[in-house]
Amino acid sequence: MAIKTFRGGTHPPHDKPAAGTPIETIKPPAKAIIPLSQHIGAPCEPLVKVGDQVKMGQKIGDSDSFISAPVHASVSGEVVEIAPYPHPDGEAKMAVVIENDGKDTLADDIKPKKMDDLTGEEIIKITKEAGVVGLGGAAFPTHVKLIPPKEGKMDALILNGAECEPYLTVDHRLMVERPEDMIYGARAMMKALQTDKCYIGIEVNKPDAIAAVREAIGGDSSMEVVELEVKYPQGSGKQLVTAVMDGIEVPSGKRSTEVGVQVANTATALAVGDAIQKGMPLIETVVTVAGSGVNGMGNFAVRTGTMASEVIEHAGGLKDNAAKIIWGGPMMGQAQFTLDIPIVKAASGILVFTEDEVVKEEILPCIKCGRCIDVCPAYLLPNTIGNASDKDMVDVAERYNADDCIECGSCSFVCPAKRPLLQWIRLAKGAIAARRSG
Amino acid sequence: MENLAVERKFVISSSPHVRSPETVQKIMIDVLIALVPAVVAAAVFFREEAIIPIIISLVAAMGTEFVLVRKGGFFSDGSAAVTGVLLALCLPPGVAWWICVIGSATAIILGKYIFGGLGSNTFNPALVGRAILLASWGGRMTEWLGPIDLRSTATPLADPGYGAPLMDLFTGNVAGSLGETSAIALLIGGAYLMYKKHINWRIPGTYIISAFILGTLLSPVGTQFDVTSGLFHVLAGGLLLGAIFMATDMVTSPVTPKGQLIFGAGCGILTVLIRIYGMYPEGVTFAILIMNALTPLIDGATKPKIYGEVSK
Q1: Does A89 touch chain B (CB under 8 A)?
Q2: What is the pLDDT of residue B2?
Q3: CB distance from A336 to chain B under 8 Å?
Q4: CA B32 to chain centre
Q5: Is the distance from CB of A311 to CB of A285 less than 8 angstroms?
């Protein structure tokens, strides 16, 4: 079968040191700090108060807003505090703090179900109640994405198993270790979406995942693994659609549903599967720990609300020359100033870089080499937008479609003059948004 | 922080957190490597009459840059070294040392620094240097020596009717500027730059093709159809040096794919028109300088279609 891809993109050094390391479950925290916002959309209101006893998997926060996802207790025990805590997003957010009684007493409403007994609407409801969000990074509430189109029909569900970021191996390990459960979740999502086709896009550097998923699919012709070229950002939603659907482009400013496909992460499908098969809400997530600043590495199944510092300690602890903590992958991840932040649902990795790797590069003038243009998967002119932004020329940045930037960082990565192009483009996007809102 | 012995401070910065190893200096070093075959060819054909001007130009360009910038060492980003060698390669063999010095200094000062330094310049610095030398000392700039024997002779371009054997033009066994004579040496350098992905085929390709077509169809007395004339225009004079090393100068050529096609074609057409109808026998310098001036306009007019563009 032909290997598919998109136009543009680049090849960051694709080190995946933890690719062969099986997922290891780490001990639940003594105190779980569970943010009431672990998704895009409205934050939840707490459903518990200080002093309450909660059970594992019990819903402790919810919202009436359409775009939101409930949060659940990841341990059983007593609520000891509801207060703002540092959050991986960079600002303090309200969190429910639970002192773990160590019993992991399950909530009463956690009951396994069977997909065949469920209607599409029920699957959507279960997904919502389980607090499932997109685990590819954006943490968009999954149940919203499972609502079938009002008119017409969804052509296909595309599962994103590209995992194109260096270091991260969460999706990879889950596909290798739990392919049947992932396929189960995918079938449930297809049923909800009322689509009869599912493509699973996987980069060809994960042959074991491709083989495992193919075996789990078996003879089901409605599901198909699509082999993708190893290229960043293959796992970006729109670029994945273009690769899988043979060049179809998602119109600017629109979602992939515009061209009849819905995209979700493979780990998200697994979470949907668990919500049905086990009745389990999303209270545990897998994170990759890697980088030369940490002693040891691996893929760890972690309860939400566990401190990042505990995960790092479990992996072996920081080295003395650790200098930078990255939440996610090295291309799109967010640098953190502290490890005192809780693991949230969509956490995918904690990378630690050393002083030698954290070099402040001198920014040289643009020599117009055009490398950023060659790699931009949105076909923008990152140099023009970046330079305009640096000079506060918001009009120019807007005219050159700064808003269509997907923030993959390929331009900054390739720039030989080490210009912070993406940072400037982000500033321009912010300025454009601020001006529009008045 | 209970789990860590000491409170630690971590670096915060915007993503991406990894950068490619490519640098401006590495690109310039690659351009210098790509110029080695042309320099060697010049040294073989013109011996010390080539080696001395190249060294003087190189040192003068880097020295001027060092005096102006005074940071990053004598080599700095390497762009001055490229300018110095490129300028030397479009000087005649045995040219006076002070011509090299004035040319290099002018290239760096008027070609680059009055615009604000590397990246801000509108025109190719080496060609600015050459244009000013040509306008100031036209006689000295067109005193050619024959290869090997180093006797005074005319450049084949001065008498296109007579022409030189195409094979001699290809190997470089003709009179001309230091780096212009050997087509094969320039092509090897161009292949290296393409292999390293510093240039692409668009500008050199359209430059060569448009010059070939126009050279085939146009003569000083009217239209013609003469493929030999077309090939002559491509191989003679500074066209290949210009197409491969000057027109592709990243700073002064368009960044958009379509813009690069227009730029290359414009260079080729102007070169042949100047050669046939202009007062100078060679048109590469002014053709590229004119297109350099148009580059911002070309870039602005050839904005690529974005991903998922919705027509308005």
Answers
A1: no
A2: 44
A3: yes
A4: 12
A5: no
Q: Is B6 on the interface with A (CB under 8 A)?
A: no
Mind telling me how many Å the CA of A411 is from chain B's nearest CA?
9
Distance CA A8, CA A375 (A): 4
Helix axes A266-277, A120-129, angle to 10 degrees: 100
- Residue B5 touches chain A, beta carbons under 8 Å: no
**DSSP code at position B245:** I
Q: Which CATH superfamily is domain A120-277 in?
A: NADH-ubiquinone oxidoreductase 51kDa subunit (3.40.50.11540)
- Alpha-carbon gap, residue B81 to B75, rounded angstroms: 7
Q: Does domain A26-102+283-356 sit in CATH 3.10.20.600?
A: yes
Nearest CA in chain A to B27: A416
Q: Which of A324, A334, A378 sits opposite B306 (nearest CB)?
A: A378
> How confident is the model over A352-410, as pLDDT tens digits?
999 988 888 899 999 999 999 999 999 999 999 999 999 999 999 999 999 999 999 99
Q: What is the pLDDT at residue B4?
A: 45
A378 lies within 8 A of chain B by CB? yes
User: Going from the N-terminus, what domains does chain B have, and what CATH number goes with each?
Assistant: 24-151+161-299 (1.10.3430.10)
- DSSP character for A307? B
Q: Which amino acid is at B82?
A: V
Is the CB of residue A275 less than 8 Å from the CB of residue A282?
yes
Q: Do the beta carbons of residue A381 and residue A405 sit within 8 Å? A: no
Task: Look up tokens 């200098």; give the residue.
Answer: A323
Choose among A281, A255, A268, A299: nearest CA to A139: A268
- Where exactly are the structural domains of chain A? 26-102+283-356, 120-277, 371-436
Of B20, B22, B308, the CB nearest to A238: B308
| Predicted confidence band of residue B182 (pLDDT cuts 50, 70, 90) | confident
Work out the mean pLDDT of chain A and round it to a whole number.
Answer: 94
Report pLDDT for B1: 39
User: Measured between CB atoms, which of A250, A313, A420 is closest to B14?
Assistant: A420
- The 10s digit of each residue's pLDDT in B80-94 is 999 999 999 999 998
Q: Residue B265: is its pLDDT beyond 50? A: yes
Chain B within 8 Å of A426 (Cβ-Cβ)?
Answer: yes
